[in-house]
Amino acid sequence: EIVMTQSPGTLSASAGETATLSCRASQSVNSNLVWYQQKPGQIPRLVMYGASTRATGVPARFSGSGSGTDFALTISSLQSEDFAVYFCQQYNNWPYSFGQGTKLEIK
Amino acid sequence: EVQLVESGGGLVKPGGSLRLSCAVSGLTFRDTWMTWVRQAAGRGLEYIGRIKSEANGGTADYTAPVTGRFTISRDDSKSAIYLQMNSLKAEDSAVYYCTKDVAYTGGGALEYWGQGTLVTVSS
Questions:
Q1: How close does chain A come to B10, measured CA to CA in Å?
Q2: What is the largest CA-CA distance in chain B?
Q3: β-strands A19-25, A70-75: how paired?
Q4: Predicted pLDDT at B108
């Protein structure tokens, strides 16, 4: 099973700043990498797939990068609604697997 | 509008069984791969398994924690999938989500989620 490791566990940032979240796979997943956003009490929301393709309705301030084993989700000009937990997940090899999550909190 | 509605959760004793259902609307169900994901309270997300469309064989794949205990099935005539859970353990306690992927991602990029159904395994 491919192990997904996210860093940092918690990221503190202020509105208007840029936040970069990282995700590393234990072996190559090509570009088959997804990011989800989850707010307290809500279901996860697909943000990015194919490592860099924004899901429907996701603002352009969200961008994804990387391939192989190292990936990043960058959120520029942070808005209040962006503060949440973000999970990465690979879908290159079954069983698909999630990272443990990064909490993006307001500084 | 795509809608996924889970049902069937509840309290069950260790070793017991439960069957979850997911009713799907707003899409051509027979062409769709569907996936079950769970999330324990305050924890991360965990894949349980996926079921392919009938055109791709209609077979299901599972993750290690549930292999041999859980079974995913589908009924295209009812636009529904099911999760039969046997030999339940305390660590199976979680919210169970029925999900649908972005097309051609093999159940990978989960675009649509149900609201989830809570399963609690406790004596």
A1: 19
A2: 42
A3: antiparallel
A4: 87
Put simply, the answer to whether B47 touches A101 (Cβ < 8 Å) is no
Q: Does B40 touch chain A (CB under 8 A)?
A: no
* Spatial contact of A5 and A42, defined as CB atoms under 8 Å apart: no
The parts of chain B modelled with pLDDT lower than 70 are none
Residue A69: pLDDT band (50, 70, 90) is very high
- The reply to whether residue B111 touches residue A95, judged by beta carbons under 8 angstroms, is no
Q: With H, G, I as helix, E, B as strand and everything else as coil, classify residue B56.
A: helix
Please list the residues that pair with B77 across neighbouring strands. Answer: none
pLDDT on residue B120:
98
- The two tokens of residue A102 are 């990064």
* Closest residue in A to B113 (Cα–Cα): A43
With 0-12 / 13-18 / 19 or more C-beta atoms within 10 angstroms meaning exposed / middle / buried, residue A30 is: middle
CB contact (8 A) between residue A56 and residue B108: no
Contact criterion met (CB < 8 Å) for A101 and B44: yes
Confidence check: pLDDT of A11 > 90 = yes
Instruction: Give residue A2's pLDDT.
Output: 97
Question: Quick check: B57 contacting A, CB < 8 Å?
Answer: no
Q: According to the model, what pLDDT value does residue B110 have? A: 95
Q: How far is CA B37 from the centre of its chain?
A: 6
